[in-house]
Design a protein that fits this description.
Elements (H helix, E strand, L loop, with lengths): L8 E12 L6 E5 L2 E3 L4 E11 L2 E9 L5 E4 L3 E4 L6 E11 L10 E9 L2 E11 L5
Parallel strand pairs: 3-10
Antiparallel strand pairs: 1-2, 1-4, 4-8, 5-6, 5-7, 5-9, 9-10
Length: 132
Amino acid sequence: MVENAPQPKFNGIVLAKDVDASGTVGVPVELTSHFFNNDEQVVAFLSFDDVTGSHTLRWEWIAPDGGIYLVSNDYSIVVNQGKYLPKVTAWHRISINYEPAADTLGEWKVVVYVDDELVDVKPFTMTEYADP
């Protein structure tokens, strides 16, 4: 642990249609919890403040029937000993358009685990696109 380091803080999940990764941290683009089955993707984005030590991060995407649609690999967050990172961002996505998810309408959930502990669940809705 780093002396005088602030306590780590998890800022929760936000959902978006894309991520701008052009800077030093990713920024969600077009925040929403409602997606159409012709959207390109659903991006789940999270951020942490004041991270120390080593951690693993895993995402689970839960379909409307309660079944697991996709589970990510474990992703490592590693901070050098004696240091801390003031901001860490991470995101995971599922493709929608022309993928099996496009045929699975209803209320979905994305679940995030840090070090195998549940840290957040975020629901979102996928509906069929209708021409205006």
